[in-house]
Structures are given as C-alpha cells and as structure tokens.
Amino acid sequence: MARQQLLLLISSLSSMVLFTLATIPAAVRIGLSSHQPLSWLVTVVVYALLVVRRRFPLGIVAVAVIGSVVLMADGMAYPLTLLALFGALYGVALESSPGRALAVGATVKATLLAGSLITHPGITGVVIVLWAALAVTTGSAARSHRAYLAEAEERARRAEQTREDEANRRVTEERLRIARELHDAVGHHVALINVQAGALACLLDDEDRSQAMESVTHIQQASEEALEELRLTVGLLREPGAAEPAEPAEPVPGLDRLGELICSFAGAGLRVTREVTGEARPLPEAVELTAYRVIQESLTNTRKHAGCDTAVVRLGYAPGALRLAVEDEGTSVAWSGLRTPGGHGIVGMRERVAAVGGRLAVGPRPEGGYRVFAELPLRAAGMEGS
Predict the structure, then answer these.
(1) In the chain, what are the domains?
(2) What is the tens place of the pLDDT at every residue in 39-66?
(3) What pTM, to 2 d.p., does this model score?
(4) What average pLDDT does the segment 304-318 reach?
C-alpha cells in the first residue's frame, strides 16, 4: 500500500512538472507582452499571500481562485496564478480531512470550469480542472502516506513497549519466586537451628559447661541474625502489587517428602500427627508444591510462635480438590505477631494458594489454638477430578 501511494505521488508530481513546462511559459510570455497592470497586480498579490497559506489555507485558496478568474476575464487562458492555486490546493488536501479536501476541490474545480467556459470556451477549462484535481489527489496521497508512516511508527513503539513490559513481568516473577523459596526453604531450616540452640541453652546451665553455653549462645545469636537478614532480603525482593507466577519455575518438593518434613520437626521438639482422608493419589506439581510449602510454613510458625509441642496435619483428597489443615493448641496471641508488616509467612502462603486458584483461611480455633486451612482445586491446576 505504501509503495502504491509513493508511485502515485511520483506520477502526480511528474505530471505537474510537465504541465508547468507546457503551459506556464506561454502564459508568462502573454503576460509579459500585454503589459497590463491588472495582471501584474493580481499575480503579485496572489503569490505574496502564499507566505501565510499555513495560517489561512482556505482563504488563500479563495484568493487564488478569484485571481485566476480575474486573469481569465482579462484575456489570459492559463493565468499566472494557477501555479499558486495548485500549491494552495495541495496544502489543503495535505493538512485537511478527506471530506474537507473533496469539498474544497469540488468547489474550486466548478468555479474554474465556469470561469474558463465563459472567457475561453473549449478544452482550456477541462485542462485546468484536470490539473486542479491532480493537485488535490497529490495532496491526499501525500497525507495518506504520512498517516501510514505515523501508524507504522506507533505500532513499532507499542511493540517495543510490549516487549519491555513482558521483560519486566518476567523479572518480577523471578524475584517473587526467589523470595518465596528463600523464605520457605532457607527460613525453615534456620528457624529450626534457632529453636534447637535455644532449647540446648536451657539444658546447659551449670558452670562446668560454661564454654558449651557460650558456643550455643553464639549459635543462637548467629541464627537470629541470619533470620533477620533473610527477612530483609525477602522484603527487598518482594515488590508491592507484583503478581505471582502461575507455575513453579523448576521441580520442587511435594507431599512425597512430607514424612521427612515431619521428622525434621520431631527433632526440634514438635510432635506432628498426620491424618489422611480419601484416596491418596498423585497430584499436579503446582498443587504438590503449594501443599508442601503451606504445611512447612505452618509447622514452622507453630514451633516458633505457638508455645506448644504438638500439631496435627490433616490431608483430605476430594474428587476435585485437595484440602489440608494444620492445627495446634498453642496461644493465638503469639500467632498474631505474624500479621506485623515485617513478616512474609502468611503473605507467601496466600500468594501460593491464590496462584493455583485456591483459598486460604488462617485464624484461631474456637476450642483454642490456631488453624491454617487451604483448599487447592485440581481442575485449576490442570488435572481433572476423579
């Protein structure tokens, strides 16, 4: 389309040049030989007013048409002002809408044709009208070509913006994935170190073991500092309003490692009971990961904040969903500290559950203690319920 417009523009300009070479020299010779002051005055005024044609395009076209008709009546078949008129028509067609350019062109051609037929009957009027139409067509073609180039540039700009937005989205997803794994995996183990060191410090309380007590104290301080640094790092990686990716980026632990996870807490002094209802079966990787991380985070919080040494993990395999609950008999006052702005545990669990289309409920139990409940739909994760 752009190539056709360019060819049309070149053809129109070539025709304009040929017209100029064929008609204007003769008109100039007639004007020079006549020495009529009116012809010179009208011609000078029309060309002088071309300077302001950008501010008053329609006014200049009207002046050029009137001047051309006056020169026709004065005996000039091809008025010297035609070149100025065609330039003004070209400018109007270039800057105006197609409808406006058509209306102006039709009015100008009708006026020129009428004036030419009255003053110089014959083919002269037809020639003038054809070249006036050519001026309008040339301007319209140039306007279309310019609009096409502007549209192409806009499309290129939007495509570049889309690529940039996609790159930013991928960076955000990766930051969230790193933050999530840091908190869930590394934070879990560091928290257990901290708990174990604190428990050991309580046991080593006689003077003969003062050196061991000092070492254990160092371990506890170092683990606390590591937890704080980890919390700050997770906070830097998480950006407000960022979206969680729908799929995990690489293979991660699932429920097949739940026994190992429970044993790790048993070593830290938290006895965990597992209860399973329904027929256990393989689940989508996203659901396996989410369930594992929610249980891991819940048990870690129980060990750190609940002030009790028992917990229950309940797994329910329903036809279209996996339901899990982690319950303890600790104090909800201690758990409420997790809602402070500095914590990311519950935030991370909510993000994980929402990423697979599930729902999460966290709060105290009526009979005492705390409960974390999550329902993870299998259909949303890409697996039909049986």
Answers:
(1) 2-156 (no CATH), 252-386 (3.30.565.10)
(2) 778 778 888 887 777 788 788 888 888 8
(3) 0.43
(4) 87
